[in-house]
């Protein structure tokens, strides 16, 4: 019985830590925003709305872009959390 109690108490220590501080999340969001703005800059003026947490491996943002031709485009920005690479999708149709 004592072994079972010790096992239950020790199990959480074996799990990876997944909680992050508010400052870490804010830093992540700023990194995604800045990367998406940089990727969109050659295409026009962008407004970036960052998903607060992204997925396990990627950050994501919606990008609304005013092109130099005056058109408004909506794109998705994908940010790789490990490599820090940023990609923009093609514009949504319509």
Characterize the structure shown.
- The protein has 94 residues and is of the alpha+beta class.
- It has a domain at 25-88.
- The protein is built from 2 helices and 4 strands; from the N terminus they run ααββββ.
- Strands 1-2-3-4 form a 4-stranded antiparallel sheet, with helices on one face.
- A hairpin with a 4-residue loop joins β2 and β3.
- The model is unreliable at 11-17 (pLDDT under 50).
- This is PepSY domain-containing protein.
- It comes from Cereibacter changlensis.
- Keywords: Signal.
- Residues 1-19 form the signal peptide.
Number of strands: 4
Portion of residues in beta strands equals 25-35%
What sort of overall outline do the alpha carbons produce when their principal axes are compared? elongated
Kindly report the average pLDDT value.
Answer: 86
Q: Roughly how many Å is the radius of gyration?
A: 20 Å
Q: Tell me the series of helices and strands, N- to C-terminal.
A: HHEEEE
Q: Please identify the structural class as seen in this structure.
A: alpha+beta
Protein name: PepSY domain-containing protein
Organism: Cereibacter changlensis
Keywords: Signal
């Amino acid at each position: 019985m004592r072994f079972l109690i010790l096992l239950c108490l020790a199990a959480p220590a074996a799990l990876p830590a997944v909680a992050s501080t508010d400052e870490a999340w804010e830093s992540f969001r700023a990194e995604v925003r800045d990367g998406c703005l940089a990727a969109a800059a050659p295409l026009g003026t962008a407004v970036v709305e960052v998903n607060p947490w992204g997925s396990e491996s990627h950050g994501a943002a919606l990008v609304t872009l005013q092109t130099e031709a005056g058109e408004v485009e909506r794109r998705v920005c994908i940010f790789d959390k490990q490599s820090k690479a940023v990609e923009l999708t093609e514009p949504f149709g319509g």
